[in-house]
Structure formats: structure tokens, C-alpha cells
User: What shape does this take?
Amino acid sequence: MRKVALDLGVRKTSYCEVADGHVILRRTVESVRLLDRELGPDAEPAVVAVEACREAWFVHDLLTSWGNEVLILDTTRTRQLGVGHHGRKTDRIDAEVIARALEANRVHPAHVLSPHRRVLRNEISIRRAMVETRAQHVTTVRGLMREKGIGLPRCGTERFASRVRDTALSEADHQLLDPMLEVIELADAQINAADNRLDRLCQQEPVIQLLMTAPGVGSVVAATFVSVIDEAGRFRRAHQLESYLGLVPSENTSGGAKQRLGHITKQGNSYLRALLVQSACAIMQNGDKADPLVIWAKEIADRRGKKIAIIALARRLAGVLWAMWRKHATYEPSNINVKKARLLRRRQPTEVTAASA
Assistant: This one.
């Protein structure tokens, strides 16, 4: 089959086709749809490599419907193919580099999210954006009042607007804050609507209900985990999943030196990683003291400190959720191996640090 690479830009898409190590066709178009002559239903089928981006799923579905085989490239691996080498990086060059790597069989495709999980992820993205907008406006309102020496009452963000309106402030201050409070109230309503839509989607996903039996895991965490992982069978071991989410320590060991571990790699989906860390914090603070996960994490905290323990627990929680999904089993504390933490006492790496995800 023909070997083609596309570099998808905001306004332009670069097309490059190679054969026998030579570029045989280049094109620059404003939309992938304009490549119907080269990649359409009437053209000879091609293997098309596309770097992962916001538009990649649409391009994948379109080109596949035209009869092509589409490979989505993991952006963390494109440098290994030669993209950006020697300080030369343009859409045209990138498309050629990827096309040559494709012909040389050096391309490792990323997982393509299934359509129904894309719907789930989109709803989560919308909810996340509104939650962040509300949090930003709450912070701004508090900052404006602090400038005047006024401390607003502490409360949850969902009750913040009403609490501020009930606070004894001057008429000028209320007028100053009113536009911000209206945005916060609108965000509250939209977040509630998003939660309702997300709940309906979660009810259609038995695996989400399954994962919510784990401690510290609510509907948002479980739904985000499922929307990112998509298929538990993608990973052979829990460690592969933990590495995919950037929760494993980076390593700098060479020349026969002792193992040196550093901060977690922070590769993969940052939002899911942050949610897992938040869940780990909740487990540490409010979890059942008899739960093996809590015991395991607190033994690490006693030896290494709370921050490292929370990151370790987030990593372990990701592996537990993956195992539950893979085995179609609810959370059972008796299945957690508490001995692992004790065994770690005997293994003291030269350097292990953890940063918040």
C-alpha cells in the first residue's frame, strides 16, 4: 500500500507521499476533505500516518471511511522518528519525516479511542472547563476583597456566590463583584447540568459502576479513567498502565552506576493523573484504617514522607482499577497485597523524589 503522512495544522494540512525512499508527491491544503483525489474512495488505498491532535479522530474516521488504513502517532514518540531534529521543524518537513519513518516501518501507532468513549471524554472535558472557570472566578473575587482587607467566608465553590451575596459588604463592593458572581452562578448551573449528563452516561457503562466500588473513586474519577484507558486489554501489566499515566519515577542510570530515580515522568493524561492524586489524598485522610491500601500508604509515609506516599498510592490505585476492570471484579480489600510496602523497607533506591501531578 502507498505510504502517506499528514501534518495537521490549524489552517493548513501538509501531505507527503513517499515510495522507495523518495518523495513522489507533496500537497498543502486547507482541509483534509480536499485530499479526496489522493486519498478518497476512488484512489488507491494508502497507509496514512497522522500525529495525534484534536483533529486526529475526525481525520481517522474520514480517511478510514474512504478505504485507507490510518495510524495515529503518539506525540511523545515523534522525536524518536526525527521530527524536529537539527532545529528544523515545519509542517512540510514533519510530514516528510513521518512518511519516511512509516515506509521504514518505524512507526508505533497510538490507541484510537472508541466512538462512545469519545462522547464520554467530551462531556468530561466540558465539565472540567466549567469547573476551572468557576474556580478562577472564585479566586478573583476573593483576591479583590483581600485588597480591601475583607476576608470572605470559607465554603464550597458551589455555595460561594450565595454566601458572598449574603455577606455584609458595601453597595460599591456588591456592584463590583456582581458580574463575577453572575458568571459563577451560571457556571454552577452548567456544572449541575453536566453532572446529570455524565451520570446518565455512567449508567450506560457497567465498568464505571464497577470502578466506583474502590475507595476514593467517584463517578468523575471512574469515568475519566475509562475515557482515557478505553480498553483494559491494551496493557499487559499494571506497571505499563502506570507508566502510560506518567506515575512512575523517571530514571537516570547509566555506565553501571547505581539506580537513580527522580520525579515521576508526568507523561500521558495530566487530568486523570491529577484526579488519581486527589483520590489518593482522600484515601489517606478519610479511608478505612483497616484497608490494606491505607496501611500500605501510611507505611510508606512513615519512611519516606506524605508526598511520596500519596504519589505511590495514586500509582497503586491506577493499577488496582486496571485489575478490577480486567477481572470484572468489585473492590475487595482482601485482594490487596499489604506485604509490598514491607518488602520495600529492604530496597532503598539511591534517590526517589515525587512531585505533585
User: Anything to note?
Assistant: The chain has 14 helices and seven strands. Residues 341-357 have pLDDT under 50 and may be disordered. The two ends are 42 Å apart (CA to CA).
